[in-house]
## 1
Amino acid sequence: MKAIRISIPRLVICVAVLAAITAIYSRVLHVTAATVTATFLLDVLVISAFWGLTYALVTSLLATLAFNYFFLPPFGTLTIADPQNWVALFAFLATALIASQLAERARTAVLVANRRRRELEQLYLFSQQLLSTENVLELLNSIPRQIVGNFEVTAAAMFVSSSQKVYYSDLSVQELIKSDELKEMFGRGTPTTDPERKLHASILRLGVRPIGLLAVAGEDLSRETLDNMANLISIAIEHVRAAENLNKSEAARESERLRTALLDSVTHEFRTPLTGIKGSVTTLRSNPALDESQRQELLAIIEEGSDRIDRLIGEAAEMAQLDAGKVALHIAPHDISEALDVALERCRQSLEHHAVDVKLQPDLPLVNMDVVRIAEVLQHFLTNAAKYSPPDTPIHIMSEIKDGQLITSVSDHGPGIESFEQSLIFEKFYRGQDQRSIVPGTGMGLPISKAIIEAHAGAIGITSQLGHGSVFSFTLPLA
Ligand code: ADP
């Protein structure tokens, strides 16, 4: 039962207003009894609507006495001569009581509706906050604090059965809500309330399975709000757990895929030059009578093979560094032709069977870039174009300004790339299915290029038509 709290100042105001009405009507205005009852009723209604039933009842009783004493003959006494006036007096009293009851009901309905609305708003905010984290531990730790922050409660604690741990809104709450008590309430399996400490608890359930218990202390929260809160928490915990498991299994799958791809690529790519080196060394050792030109040929195979292995190791190391974000860029305003000259010089040998046609838009502005790295990207594009297109077909290089950015492209007349492969070729170690057994490569050139361009806040892209060729391009922000 709720204790009735009465405010003396309010009571004084009720009496004073009643006294004022009585004084005005009995001394100054001299109105009819009907006007007096109407005014008293109005007073009772207003009081009931704003301050509640208790004040209205007191006012009604006092008004009945005042009506009898001042306005029903014989005046100045509490006796009533005419039986008709008894009826008038009781009619007034009954009307005042019923009206104050009705006004009180309306007032409580408004209060309850307002409270529900506020609780709904708080629940909505709370649900938004629950969705903001993707980590189970972070979520569990934050829930009790968010409850205290969002709802009008002073303490919150949550017991999670899978870990048998209790999470508190702050450490001092441990004294108020003991962890053993929470476990015991959870064991009982029913919602609990302790009116003395204003402690309310609700079971966290997923479907019918209990997964924990939520306890709050402080102001009275409605049971619906507490249960809704418990439902939201159960769903959020399960949602984050499921997301974490999915991420873990996705990460495990991805690392497994990379491991297999790396192993395939590395075993194949290392084995080919190593076989050449090993064969050449064996021949050199077992045939001391080889002539000079044969010896030189075998030594060239050894040199080429070692260079290739060296390049492979270099690319793998660079890839790992780019992945770890450890590559520092030396960005400064440069002309794109600086990077292009470096790349063309380095690719001279691979490009010897291709005519290279360079078209740079006149007066190109400077771009922000690390020349060495951008030259490296161009080098990958150019060696791929040479590697994957038939000898004696031309390769075109273009650079122009488009949409406020510098776009540079390398086009070839090679076999083109199937549309399903166009995004895959930028993934680590991916090698085109038609090329992987014919043309040597590691599947690292394009992912390295992509990482470099993205570190420059640019974008890498490809357009290709099967049987006609491919265009690889990248954009760079202007200086
Ligand atoms: P690699 O050339 O060592 O295989 P890349 O990452 O440079 O590695 O390229 C990945 C794949 O993209 C290649 O295996 C090839 O299938 C495809 N590719 C790249 N450039 C071209 C091109 N110019 N024409 C056709 N296919 C290409």
## 2
Amino acid sequence: MESVSHVREHTHCRVCQSARLETYLDLGVQPLANAFRKPEDPTPELTAPLVLARCLDCGLSQLKHVVDRDVLYRHYLYASGHSAGWWQHCRDLADEIAALQRDAVVCDIAANDGTFLKICRNRGLSGYGVDPALDINSGSVPMIRDYWHLGLAVECRFFPGPVDVVVAQNVLGHVDDVQDFLSGIATVLKESGVAIIECPHLIPLLENGAFDTVYHEHLSYWSLSPLITAAGLAGLAVFDVKMFPDLHGGTCRYYLSHDLGLPCSENVWALREREAATLTPGAYADFGRIVKHTLGRLSRVLREHAPIYAYGASAKSTVLLNALKAADPEWCSCNITAVFDDTPGKQGMWTPGLGLPILAPFDDMSQVGALLITAENWAPQILEKVRARGFTGTVIRPWHGVTVEAACHALS
Ligand code: DWN
Ligand code: ZN
């Protein structure tokens, strides 16, 4: 590969150091999924290869190239608080923590806009967040502007002090040095503390054909088995798990504590068995076929239903649309007029690679003929919103081999 300063090749598994990484998805060279741009921005867009491999020794799925994290995260536009479904998920988690310990002190890693900590505060819990993004407004939530790492954890253990609960939602997959990250969690956690780590699980990704969740930010695609190995190396143990099939396309919550040799729950055994039965060589091969089929069918559907608006200027939309363009020699950007998004910071920007305009959704959506849902994980909420604004056209959803339905039938 041409040596490019913001990209580094990743040759050894980040859990077990094995060099036996087998590629099972190659999406070519792609723009960075969250690099939304101002139309007048004259700087060249950064790109990097998007190649997914699995470790034949410990099973961790991981990208074969690592993009410099400062390029990805220092100026981050994604604000989790704009998704109502996410609020509900965070409320439930805060309730669970408060029920366990009314005065728990929480450290929220990759706290983004502070949504979770604000909810915790309303329940009498206290704590602080850690996040490297410099531009995200987290209001009055105490926030350390840094990446989570062992050195920082040592400082935090000293001041503000060890915590009862560490929460790390949708961040472990983004971390290159997993050992340092998990050791940091072990360091800041009290002896009796619990770490709650959430990230999309590999099984639904493969089963849904959700290849659009594969992008440069997501360096690893976790499942329980490699996590148990990585946690053990940091002195932690996974004692319980919970699946959220509808969250971000299928999220797993892992509960960890210091490794005191205690037994783990039935759920842990059940998930291990399910992984052993599901994550077979055939499953990875099927996934490659699903992706090919999806891209072919989606290209045809988009041509048939043009002009189309997309909804959700998600990172996933960047992958999906750029992969479509790469796979379809007859691709025409004008098939897609614009991408709607409710996030004020994204409106007025252009999408990476294709330069499609991002707009606030129209107050009256009755003139929109066809809508491509490019945040499929939030499809129910998005459909509710657009129907309430008069949308009666065709809904196109990319997962599960592409579905095309009238608005009145979609997801009803
Ligand atoms: O791990 C990550 C996940 C959790 O979030 C990141 N690396 C970045 C991000 O990925 P994403 O951009 O694909 O996430 P979302 O939450 O699927 O993005 C949805 C987009 O759609 C956001 O830009 C917000 C937007 N949206 C909207 O405009 N109206 C979402 C909903 C639910 C809505 O009603
Ligand atoms: Zn490995």
